[in-house]
Design brief:
The protein is of the alpha+beta class. It is 18% helix and 39% strand.
Length: 184
């Protein structure tokens, strides 16, 4: 063996012979735990796919995943801000945003999945602007005779303390509530 770097001190303790490392795979594996022996013998098959979650060491991850999905499902079910509703094949979606001291409210009206309406429907909306104390500050009315396509009911209100906009939508004899937070 040729010495490439003769000036380098490689493992020579003071006054002793240089250290020698011997590699004997069989001897090393003979003293290894059983799981290492099985790995080198090719007996271990990796667990793949969804089965990974059902192994003993991953049960906490599975429990956390189930709890997270349940929490998200319950939160969306009980959330008080609902900005989407469907009445008689008509889809209504409300958005509110603040710009330059004004709170603008848009209620988008369209038919569900492209189905045509049999006759035009009158849509009435009472829009409530709610402040930090959860008290309605102002009520505005908007109405529309909807025959199809995509149309909007729009209102605006001047105030800086509005945090939420609620609306009661009437289509024929059916009333539904919409609610959305004001985007800043």
């Amino acid at each position: 063996m040729s010495d490439i770097f003769p000036e380098a001190n490689e493992g020579k303790p003071d006054g002793k012979q240089p250290l020698h490392f011997f590699y004997n795979r069989e001897e090393r594996i003979a003293h290894a735990p059983q799981i290492v022996k099985d790995f080198y013998d090719g007996k271990m098959e990796p667990v793949r796919g969804i089965k990974v979650l059902f192994q003993k060491q991953n049960r906490y991850i599975l429990i956390a995943l189930v709890l997270f999905v349940a929490f998200v499902w319950m939160y969306t079910g009980f959330n008080s801000t609902r900005n989407y509703v469907k009445i008689n094949n008509i889809v209504l979606e409300m958005q509110a945003f603040s710009y330059d001291g004004e709170v603008y409210t848009n209620i988008k009206v369209k038919t569900a999945s492209g189905k045509a309406l049999e006759k035009p429907e009158k849509i009435d909306a009472k829009v409530y602007y709610v402040n930090l104390d959860n008290q309605p500050v102002e009520v505005k009315d908007a109405s529309l005779v909807y025959g199809g396509g995509e149309e909007y009911l729009r209102t605006k209100f001047t105030d800086y303390d509005i945090i939420r906009v609620d609306a009661i939508i009437s289509v024929g004899d059916i009333e539904k509530e919409l609610s959305t937070a004001v985007a800043r």
